[in-house]
Design goal:
The protein is mostly beta strands. It has one helix at 9-18; strands at residues 41-47, 52-55, 60-68, 80-84, 88-91, 94-97, 103-113, 116-127, 133-147, 152-157, 159-166, 171-182, 187-199, 203-211, 217-226, 230-241, 244-257.
């Protein structure tokens, strides 16, 4: 007759306590065993796009999507906070703002889902905008010319006027003219030139472009100082061509005009 063994109740109770609890490994959970709602969440900035640029004060649309990665369906979530340098922030899934700080930086969004905070970011650039300024003034210069054709050289003043404009992004465009007479009138030029460049906080630099009477194009760099009331710059360059050598140097001095 087979022998029957009886397990004491106390031993059976201890064995049950030591056994691991059953859990669905496919469903992530937090420490309490509750499924983690953020496990399959995807946070993505819809607007603005990565690398976008704006002018200071431009209206910028902010929009973020929070979806389930598996189903693609929108997910419920908590607070949404956007942040940028200089303590800038905005709260909400979407909205239009016009006070982003100037500079290039990551614009970040944080979304609370369950007990976690998920983030996404895009790089943006906000360009400082300035009031356009129109300057006008005097160009004082000298032109030296050595002529291969006559094997002689001469130099003389080329004085005239110029005007330049700085735009909202501090780009520089302008024009000017001066007159020079060399070799007892054999060379008699009305020198008409164009100006381009860039203004920064306190300085200006760029290039003067002009053509001689033979149609040769010359580029002469300039640099100087500028504020909202006045501009002053100097330039100098030497150019060689089939006709000889030309040196062009001088200054621009102007004031802001209404």
């Amino acid at each position: 007759m087979p022998t029957t063994h009886t397990v004491p109740a106390a031993a059976l109770f201890l064995a049950l306590l030591a056994a691991p609890a059953c859990k669905d490994d496919d469903e992530p959970s937090d420490d309490s065993g509750t499924p983690d709602p953020s496990a399959h969440a995807q946070v993505e900035i819809v607007s603005p796009s990565d690398g976008a640029s704006f002018g200071q004060g431009d209206e910028v649309l902010l929009e973020v999507s929070v979806t389930d990665q598996e189903s693609g369906e929108p997910m419920e979530h908590g607070a949404v906070t956007w942040s940028a340098p200089e303590g800038w922030s905005f709260t909400g899934d979407s909205g239009a703002v016009s006070d982003l700080p100037v500079g290039s930086y990551p614009l970040e969004v944080s979304v609370v889902i369950g007990e976690r905070t998920l983030t996404d970011s895009v790089d943006v650039t906000v360009i400082e905008v300035h009031d356009p300024v129109h300057y006008a003034g005097q160009l004082r210069s000298r032109i030296y010319l050595y002529s291969n054709e006559y094997d002689i050289d001469d130099e003389g003043p080329c004085d005239g006027t110029f005007e330049i404009d700085t735009d909202a992004s501090w780009g520089v465009v302008g024009s000017g003219q001066c007159h020079v007479s060399l070799f007892h009138g054999m060379v008699d030029w009305d020198v008409i030139f164009e100006i381009d460049g860039v203004r920064t906080d306190g300085s200006i630099a760029g290039t003067l472009f002009f053509f001689d009477d033979q149609g040769t194009r010359y580029e002469t760099p300039y640099e100087g100082t500028v504020d909202d009331a006045a501009v002053s710059a100097t330039f100098a360059a030497e150019h060689s061509n089939d006709h000889g050598i030309l040196r062009f140097s001088g200054s621009l001095d102007g004031r802001a005009m209404p």
